[in-house]
Amino acid sequence: MEVTNRYITIKTQVDGEPKESDFELKTSALSLSLDPSSNDIIVKNLYVSIDPYQLNRMKSQSSSQKAIGFAAAITPGEDIDAYGVAKVVASGNPEFEKDDLVVGLITWGEYSLLKGGKYMLRKFDPMGFPLGLTAYGGFFEVCKPKKGEKVFVSAASGSVGNLVGQYAKLFGCYVVGCAGSKEKVALLKEKLGFDDAFNYKEEPDLKAALQRYFPDGIDIYFDNVGFEMLEAAVVNMNTFGRVAVCGVISEYIDATKRAAPNMLDVVYKRIKIQGFLAADQMNVFPDFLSTTTDHLRTGKLHAVEDISDGVESFPSAFIGLFRGHNTGKKMVKVADE
Question: Per the confidence metrics, is the pTM higher than 0.70?
Fold first, then answer.
């Protein structure tokens, strides 16, 4: 038996802002007959996470491509791997049976052929699928917050930022976020419990804006943006402030944008600026899972999701990340089951 698999590839390396013409919808036949000793698995993709870091994998060259395995370069014409939820349709691995729900690295397509047992996959936890280890680990492990501290979150309505703000509030911090529209600002203040929020597009002077929102200074800055936002935050940081650098989306699509924080501030205020990856945070995964599922169950934490439908929507869903179209965690729903 075989199925027809439709999947998305890049036609060529993507070195600027991504556009629809960079991507191609391909079709191939996929046999569901597997050698029982192969360790290969075929899964039907259900939900696939759409993440900005993938753009760095699509570039002809990026320092991130050599840093860690999951950030390796994507070859034009080949599958694009991404985190998601899927259902096993054929298995040559005794650990996985047909119809098992799994979570791990799958692809931008309707089906994924995962070969040789070297895949990153585990059985789906019926407690749900909280995507948020980056937010949890970054805030608690990198920022090391204390109750009452003042926290600034950029791209606060995005997949990571919205959770950081919520974790910080639940922990007992004062939290201000910025976003790119009045609707997103309203979401932060009215639904997600941020103490305050502002639209950065309406602020010609970011340094002055942050001074207004943090008259007593910033203790923790959770950075998803880079460039001018990082510079403005550092100017307004308190002594022994911490900056967790999760992403620099403003710099992904424009190589001329590079943050240049005032290093005298960094030295004399003893500011710690640390980059990190979700892969660093696996030691707190059990804490993250229990805390997050508890908060979700009791309604203290809101999961904000932005879902597109169908394999054809992968390119527009991805491109939208760089145009501020998404609110919360962006995913593509490929199939029901």
Answer: yes
